[in-house]
Design a protein that fits this description.
Layout (H helix, E strand, L loop, with lengths): L3 E6 L3 H11 L5 E7 L2 H11 L3 E5 L7 H10 L7 E6 L7 H7 L3 E4 L4 H12 L7 H9 L8 H6 L5 H11 L4 H8 L3 H14 L5 H10 L6
Parallel strand pairs: 1-2, 1-3, 3-4, 4-5
């Protein structure tokens, strides 16, 4: 069995210990390193190249947003997905974190089963956005008209790619999209991948951000 390798980043030892105990009880998950601040996180991510980095937002030396930005910017860490840990599902840093390249967010007091599921979702490259966080993201665009430059960026997409991108932004999985459009799951996944490539989106979460920024999807 291929294990999902995880980097834990939190300045509270008890939080890290709790997450480690939960994660290492699973056969397909393992903790490869722990960091107490964002600077350590960047260094350890480069050293261990984890599949998923669970990163707290508020930390000394370097906060979670900047640590995320630096990890995502490292070409050697293209396979690492950063999931930001927050105390509040509607934290003001949600949008900033997604723009920094986070694959998603998890609330610290989430149920253990949901935390484990979230790690697996992020590892396979899907966006990890809870309903509360999705509402926060949508709300950020209620009073913002899409910029003409961003809107024009969608011209590179086919009509099918636009349709699939819009459905993904509304929270539908590849399976849901396939059913809605009466296509195979593989075809839905291909459309998503092509849209990401054309729009230079690192992952599905960034594709969702772009869908709202460009006005493709409106609240």
């Amino acid at each position: 069995m291929t294990q999902i390798r995880i980097l834990l980043v939190d300045d509270q030892p008890l939080i890290r210990a709790g997450f480690r105990a939960l994660i290492e009880a699973e056969d397909d998950l393992s903790v490869v390193a722990e960091a107490a601040n964002g600077a350590e996180a960047v260094t350890l991510a480069a050293r261990h190249r984890p599949d998923v980095a669970l990163v707290d937002i508020q930390m000394p030396v370097l906060d979670g947003i900047e640590a995320t930005r630096r990890i995502v910017a490292d070409p050697a860490l293209a396979g690492t997905r950063v999931v930001i840990l927050t105390n509040y599902g509607i934290d003001e840093h949600v949008y900033e974190g997604l723009r920094a390249g986070a694959a998603g967010f998890l609330v610290k007091d989430t149920e253990p089963v949901d935390l484990l599921h979230g790690i697996r979702v992020a590892a396979r490259g899907d966006a990890l956005l809870s309903p509360a966080i999705t509402r926060r993201l949508i709300g950020a665009y209620v009073s913002r008209p899409p910029s003409s430059g961003r809107t024009a960026a969608l011209d590179v997409l086919t009509n099918r790619e636009r349709e699939v991108m819009a459905l993904a932004a509304r929270g539908l999985s590849n399976h849901d999209i396939a059913e809605r459009m009466v296509i195979s799951v593989a075809t839905a996944k291909t459309h998503i991948s092509r849209a990401m490539t054309k729009l230079h989106a690192r992952d599905r979460a960034q594709l969702v951000v772009l869908a709202y920024e460009t006005g493709l999807v409106t609240p």
